[in-house]
Amino acid sequence: MYGYADKVFSRQPHAGMKPEYHREEPLLHHTVDCVILGFHRTELHVLLHRFPYKPYQGHWALLGGFVDSSVSLDEAALQTVRRLTGLDNIYMEQVYTFGNVGRVPTERVITTCYYALIPVEPTLDQLSPEYEATWHPISQVQNLALVYDHPAMLDKAIEQLRHRVRFQPIGFELLPEKFTMTELRQLYESILGRPLDKRNFTKKVQAMDLLEKLDEKQKDTSKRGAFYFRFDPERYQQYLRDGFLFAL
Amino acid sequence: MYGYADKVFSRQPHAGMKPEYHREEPLLHHTVDCVILGFHRTELHVLLHRFPYKPYQGHWALLGGFVDSSVSLDEAALQTVRRLTGLDNIYMEQVYTFGNVGRVPTERVITTCYYALIPVEPTLDQLSPEYEATWHPISQVQNLALVYDHPAMLDKAIEQLRHRVRFQPIGFELLPEKFTMTELRQLYESILGRPLDKRNFTKKVQAMDLLEKLDEKQKDTSKRGAFYFRFDPERYQQYLRDGFLFAL
DNA sequence: ACAAAAGTGTTTATTGTACACCCATGC
DNA sequence: GCATGGGTGTACAATAAACACTTTTGT
After folding, report:
1. Residues in chain B where the model's pLDDT stays below 50
2. A74 at the B interface (CB within 8 A)?
3. Where does the pLDDT of residue A216 fall: very low under 50, low under 70, confident under 90, or very high at 90 and above?
4. CA nearest B203: which of B248, B154, B157?
5. A243 touches B at CB < 8 Å
6. For residue B144, how far is the Cα from the chain centroid?
7. How far apart are CA B214 and CA A91, in angstroms?
8. Which residue(s) pair with A50 in the sheet?
9. A235: closest CA among A172, A141, A191?
10. Which of A4, B24, B175, B226 gets the highest tally of CB atoms within 10 A of its CB?
11. What is the rounded distance in angstroms from the CA atom of residue B174 to the CA atom of residue B138?
């Protein structure tokens, strides 16, 4: 998957077509785990839940789910996010598949990791309560002792997002409809993990002709106020399709 | 996996540890498919075999294999290459996991795609004959009607190799010990799918201080002869670890 | 009046790109 | 002597990076 979900619905699952040469082949458990990312305040956050099973009960973990034979991997990942957040039509991307034998001590299971980009605010008070899920700033996660190889999953997801950010726009998925230039820059700073020059950043963003400056100002963070911008949806879609090179 | 195989051996496979919450979960077939790449003459080639099962019997396909619960995904991929070529200690990288429901018409199977980089010459007359495998120039493969979603796998593998080539050295895996500057350039041209300026290429490669110029000349392709080079193993390993930026 | 964040251009250094001729040799 | 691929340097353009002061306004 790359971008928004292709709607691939399940069909009659191979009824009676199972060929001879598959009959005797090994069967495995397969799960998806989702690195659900959002931008809140000045930093990227990840949505974690408290792991409910021993021996890691109570530890923080990415949310995941088993894949059964009626859904695609992509759908399974989408369902996981939907189950937790209620959100649909989510931007997701596959990251990597973790398949070492001992990665989950109690069980052989292969896990495909996805990351999802979602807006944080809509989820703040409607996270499905059964999961005890909360948002954590990316910079704090290393202190959290995630279960299994979830730290590696998170690393790989961030690495991939860092790469992606250079070739396609991502703000739409993570920012509210209206946002200030400072917010956009802080988003990129948080993803890339380093400060960016304010003037050069503004220059480059404006050169892409992707933003529309609004008349309205945000006055929360300064007396003077900062102009809001929003994405030009057409240019945004075009860049999603064609890509760009956003050297920061 | 990234680079050479970690030797992860199987251990006692979870005997008696299966937790309650896994007992009832769905089981699936999982395979690995390998895009085995090599550089021959002036072009990148891919090793394909004739698919032995209906309904695609006789079509060209990537070689793959089932994953069972005693081996990691990486090991399964290595075994696949070893089975076909007899080669061990292969450079491999995971590409993507394909998990749509209908991707294999007869069966629900999830497949993780890897690419492997190997030298072609050692394999030329010792390919395991039971597979009817042969090398095909990358530029010709689109005419070949590969089975299932193997065309997409090949595309993704090449795309990833193109990306990789910009950040880490790869010649060691694909070239003989001694090679000419022209051969090295043709390798990069074939991977990137576009011509590269001879002078600029030489300049950039030499600036990396990665090659050692030998006294010996290759005289096959010209009267004048071309100097052989070889990689400086230490610098090569260093670049593999630390990466570089090789803007071509 | 002052604190706090917003906004705005220029200069310099670096890097990428384009380009053409002579060289060495085997036939 | 000529055909074939091998080998080499320079000039120009584009891009990235560094950098500091003025503006606005709520308190």
Report:
1. 6-13, 15-18
2. yes
3. very high
4. B248
5. no
6. 19
7. 52
8. A60
9. A172
10. B175
11. 14
Vertex B20: Cα angle to A59 and A142 (nearest 5):
15
Tokens standing for residue A67: 């894949």
On whether the CB atoms of residues A38 and A120 are closer than 8 A, the answer is: yes
Give the span between the Cα atoms of B65 and B83, in whole angstroms: 10
Number of other residues whose CB lies within 10 A of the CB of residue B177: 11
The tokens describing B52, both together, are 């032995």
Contact call for B107 and A28, based on CB within 8 A: no
> 3-state SS string over chain B?
CEEECCCCCCCCCCCCCCCHHHCCCCCEEEEEEEEEEEEECCEEEEEEEECCCCCCCCCEECEEEECCCCCCHHHHHHHHHHHHHCCCCCEEEEEEEECCCCCCCCCCEEEEEEEEECCCHHHCCCCCHHHCEEEEEHHHHHHCCCCCCHHHHHHHHHHHHHHHCCCCCCHHHHCCCCEEHHHHHHHHHHHHCCCCCHHHHHHHHHHCCCEEEEEEEECCCCCCCEEEEEECHHHHHHHHHHCCCCCC
Nucleotides of D under 7 A from a protein CB: 3-10, 15-20, 23-26
Q: Which of A56, A57, A69, A95 to mutate to test the interface with B (most CBs of B within 10 A)?
A: A69
What digits encode the pLDDT tens for the residues A93-110?
Answer: 999 999 999 999 999 999
Residues of chain B found within 8 Å of residue A66, distances taken between Cβ atoms: 25-26
Q: To probe the interface with B, which of A17, A72, A75 has the most B CB atoms within 10 Å?
A: A72
Q: Tell me the two tokens of residue B217.
A: 């000349």
Least confident segment among A123-127, A180-184, A240-244, B160-164: A123-127
Please answer whether residues B1 and B94 qualify as being in contact, where contact means their C-beta atoms are separated by less than 8 angstroms.
yes
Residue B226 structure tokens: 């071309």
Cβ contact, residue pair B94, A96, below 8 Å: yes
- The nucleotides of chain C lying under 7 Å from a protein CB are 3-10, 15-20, 23-26
